[in-house]
């Protein structure tokens, strides 16, 4: 059989292929020749054939038939064969295939080989694709090589030990004695790998973390020597001595100093030295400075050092490299909650980033700008953000408008400024605002009695000839309907009044009705406004009647219904029209934390004991179970028993008509209120126990697996379960809410409902803010009485504010473990 072509010739041949099909044909032909050679057990050219096979594998062609040939090369005594064999094993094999276990004995022999390069090949392969079984069998050999005097082997053994620890964490203690001595090594390669090994051990074991904290002075000394050392051509990168080792040491110091005062104190000085002495003209220096900033912000550092770190990020914002600017904005966004004043000093630079061409930088700058808004800078920041809203891309407008609304509501210096700002947003980006922007602005205008004339005049001028911004037109139509008489009278004191006739006002509203740009909702606002003006205007009532009667035959059902009802007001109930259409009273701000009878608000401090009282003789409060909507199918909803008794009477609307957001999820009709003579629902005995200063349960049995009830948009809700020994029908569910996004979730409220066969009680949550980056959790206790031992089902509702938007979601939990309810 002729000798196979060399790898170099194969590469040259494949590169001459003009089409994919031609290349595929060449590969198939060569694979056939390689297979034939493998079948003939040709030892002479096995190494060459496997090398060619690896090249084909890297091109994306199947090469699995060469796996056993790799094992044969590994077993060979030639170094060249072993080198290709181990390389093939790392590329073609992984722990999912049983073939790799056949290598264990060969690797063990090679780890004890007399040649360091053969030992290095075995260590590389084990550290790359060793399974947990292989790691257990060969950990002893790796640990011996960690103690050798050969620095070439020690650095490879340290990296292999990292892989062993990841696969079999319980073997960590085996490497503890050898790891301590690695930091005394002068060789930078060994030092680098030893720091990697220490980092892995500290991240995986709290005990190791506490043990290695005493190495902080030694790590500080190594880092100081790196900074103070002169030029070393072996380790110099752009004028900085071994930046890779410096970055690794800074990361390890960050882990060791987190939540530890003594360790943080020991590293404060060296971090200040690194921050002040590192050259920033090259990217290498910026990488070290960035790691230094992260370490300073993560440990318990001094306030002056934290200001220095934020100033470094401020300098990053002036860098020409977009990546560095993006990193700086992201880091400042993480620290703005803890060091607000220090970040405020760089406000002008951050605002300048809003004009950047890069959309990622724009988004980060916008989020950071909103985080910097406060009562002192609200006017200046809103001016910049409104200018940004004018010129930004459409994908930014919704988030920017929401952020401006929230900031204006929180920090508005005056009612007029607040109204002007929101109107500016509606004029600029009205089509992108949230659905609740219109009712919120209407409420704001209604409550600002002294601003009614000014507002209606501004809105009238804003919609003259432009109906493209539908939310703006809706607010304007509502205000013209309410305060049209003020518009006609010209009583505006804040600015020069305009002279408008009744017919001109009606012309505008009729134009909105017939405009092709008007949505159905906008037409409804306009028709209602025209109807209201029948009691505000005196000369155009007949015209209004005519317009209303025309829309009585509209193809839009909503408009038709309104028009028919308004026609009836003109004809049958004209004596009631003025009373029905009188001006709206001042609106009260409605809280969204749910009904008052269900005490779940995040402002509660301590649950009070419940008392069982005899039923009163008068009408029952609306917290009866009958008033709850059917949330899980059938009229079987149980009331949520409050942790604090309430004395608030039933309102006309009934606060408990809907536990989870005014929606009948099953379409079933709402149950009628209970008659006055019906007895009050008795509270189960377990709810009366332990709600004083005593612990909730002293006889808890555990061992029930936890579940993830919700995991979406960075919010994760986990349920853990406990059972009472004295009352097996009682299950205590502890919810833990965590947040993996980069911003806190505020005003967090958790609500729940269960079928009627259960009794459920929500206790107070630990907080109303879910911290970002999983740095903390909110906990809340749910107690469920399940006397019939039925499978547990639950519907939950989550509301919170995130990135300037009010978020709300519903979910159903049906995967409760059997131990929690059987």
From TrEMBL:
Keyword Transmembrane found: no
Chain ranges of the GAE domain: 702-817
Localisation: Cytoplasm, Perinuclear region; Cytoplasmic vesicle, Clathrin-coated vesicle membrane; Golgi apparatus; Membrane, Coated pit
PROSITE patterns in alphabetical order: GAE (PS50180)
Main location: cytoplasm
Keywords for this protein: Coated pit, Cytoplasm, Cytoplasmic vesicle, Golgi apparatus, Membrane, Protein transport, Transport
Pfam families: Adaptin_N (PF01602), Alpha_adaptinC2 (PF02883)
Cytoplasm in keyword set: yes
Region listing for Disordered, in residue ranges: 597-628
Topology in membrane: Peripheral membrane protein
GO biological process: intracellular protein transport; vesicle-mediated transport
Family the entry assigns: Belongs to the adaptor complexes large subunit family.
Described purpose of this protein according to its UniProt entry: Subunit of clathrin-associated adaptor protein complex 1 that plays a role in protein sorting in the late-Golgi/trans-Golgi network (TGN) and/or endosomes. The AP complexes mediate both the recruitment of clathrin to membranes and the recognition of sorting signals within the cytosolic tails of transmembrane cargo molecules.
Name of the protein in question: AP-1 complex subunit gamma
Organism field: Pipistrellus kuhlii (Kuhl's pipistrelle)
């Amino acid at each position: 059989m002729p000798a196979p072509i060399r790898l170099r010739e194969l590469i040259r041949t494949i590169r001459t292929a003009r089409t994919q099909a031609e290349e595929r044909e060449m590969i198939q032909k060569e694979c056939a020749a390689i297979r034939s050679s493998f079948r003939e057990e040709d030892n002479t050219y096995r190494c060459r054939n496997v090398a060619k096979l690896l090249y084909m594998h890297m091109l994306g062609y199947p090469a699995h038939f060469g796996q056993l040939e790799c094992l044969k090369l590994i077993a060979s005594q030639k170094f060249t064969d072993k080198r290709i064999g181990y390389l093939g094993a790392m590329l073609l094999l992984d722990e999912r295939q049983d073939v790799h276990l056949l290598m264990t004995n060969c690797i063990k022999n090679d780890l004890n080989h007399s040649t360091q390069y053969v030992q290095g090949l075995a260590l590389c392969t084990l550290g790359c694709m060793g399974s947990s079984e292989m790691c257990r069998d060969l950990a002893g050999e790796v640990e011996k090589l960690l103690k050798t005097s050969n620095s070439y082997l020690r650095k490879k053994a340290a990296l292999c030990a990292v892989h062993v620890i990841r696969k079999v964490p319980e073997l960590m203690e085996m490497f503890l004695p050898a790891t301590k001595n690695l930091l005394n090594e002068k060789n930078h390669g060994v030092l680098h790998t030893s720091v990697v090994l220490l980092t892995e051990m500290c991240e995986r074991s709290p005990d190791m973390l506490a043990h290695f904290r005493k190495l902080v002075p030694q790590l500080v000394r190594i880092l100081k020597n790196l900074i103070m050392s002169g030029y070393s051509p072996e380790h110099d990168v752009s004028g900085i001595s071994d930046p890779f080792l410096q970055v690794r040491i800074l990361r390890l110091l960050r882990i060791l100093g987190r939540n530890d005062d003594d360790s943080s104190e020991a590293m404060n000085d060296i971090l200040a030295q690194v921050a002040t002495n590192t050259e920033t003209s090259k990217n290498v220096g910026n990488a070290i400075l960035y790691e230094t900033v992260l370490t300073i912000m993560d440990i318990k550092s001094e306030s002056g050092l934290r200001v220095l770190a934020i100033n470094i990020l401020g300098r990053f914002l002036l860098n020409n490299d977009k990546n560095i600017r993006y990193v700086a904005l992201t880091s400042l966004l993480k620290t703005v909650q803890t060091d607000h004043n220090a970040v405020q000093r760089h406000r002008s630079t951050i605002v300048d980033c809003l004009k950047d061409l890069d959309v990622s930088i724009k988004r980060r700058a916008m989020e950071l700008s909103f985080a910097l808004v406060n009562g002192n800078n609200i006017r200046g920041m809103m001016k910049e953000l409104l200018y940004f809203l004018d010129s930004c891309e459409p994908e930014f407008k919704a988030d920017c408008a929401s952020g401006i609304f929230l900031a204006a509501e929180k920090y508005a210096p005056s009612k007029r400024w607040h109204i002007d700002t929101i109107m500016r947003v509606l004029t600029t980006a009205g089509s992108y605002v949230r659905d609740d922007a219109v009712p919120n602005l209407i409420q704001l205008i209604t409550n600002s009695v002294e601003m009614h004339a000014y507002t209606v005049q501004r809105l009238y001028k804003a919609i003259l000839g432009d109906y493209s911004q539908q939310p703006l037109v809706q607010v304007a139509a509502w205000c013209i309907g309410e305060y049209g008489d003020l518009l006609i009278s010209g009583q505006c004191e804040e600015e020069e009044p305009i002279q408008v006739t009744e017919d001109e006002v009606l012309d505008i509203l009729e134009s909105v009705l017939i405009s092709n740009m008007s949505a159905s909702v906008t037409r409804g606002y306009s028709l209602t406004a025209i109807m209201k003006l029948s009691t505000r205007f005196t000369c155009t009532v007949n015209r209004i009647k005519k317009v209303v009667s025309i829309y009585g035959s509209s193809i839009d059902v909503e408009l038709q219904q309104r028009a028919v009802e308004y026609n009836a007001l003109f004809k049958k109930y004209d004596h009631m029209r003025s009373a029905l259409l009188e001006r709206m009273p001042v609106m009260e701000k409605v809280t969204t934390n749910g009904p008052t009878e269900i005490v779940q608000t995040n402002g509660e401090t301590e649950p009070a004991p419940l008392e069982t009282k005899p039923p009163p003789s008068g009408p029952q409060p609306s917290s009866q179970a009958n008033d709850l909507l059917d949330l899980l199918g059938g009229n079987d909803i149980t009331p949520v028993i409050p942790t604090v008794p309430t004395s608030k009477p039933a309102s006309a609307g009934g606060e408990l008509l809907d536990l989870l957001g005014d929606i009948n999820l099953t379409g079933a009709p709402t149950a009628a209120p209970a008659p006055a003579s019906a007895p009050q629902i008795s509270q189960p005995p377990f709810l009366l126990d332990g709600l004083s200063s005593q612990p909730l349960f002293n006889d808890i049995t555990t061992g029930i697996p936890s579940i993830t009830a919700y995991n979406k948009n960075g919010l994760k809700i986990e349920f853990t379960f406990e059972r009472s020994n004295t009352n097996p029908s009682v299950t205590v569910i502890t919810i833990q809410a965590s947040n993996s996004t980069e911003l806190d979730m505020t005003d967090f409220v958790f609500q729940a409902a269960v079928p009627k066969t259960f009794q459920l009680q929500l206790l107070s949550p630990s907080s109303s803010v879910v911290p970002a980056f999983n740095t903390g959790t909110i906990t809340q206790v749910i107690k469920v009485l399940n006397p019939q031992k039925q499978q547990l089902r639950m519907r939950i509702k989550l509301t919170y504010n995130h990135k300037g938007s009010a978020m709300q979601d519903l979910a159903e939990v049906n995967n409760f473990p059997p131990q929690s309810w059987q």
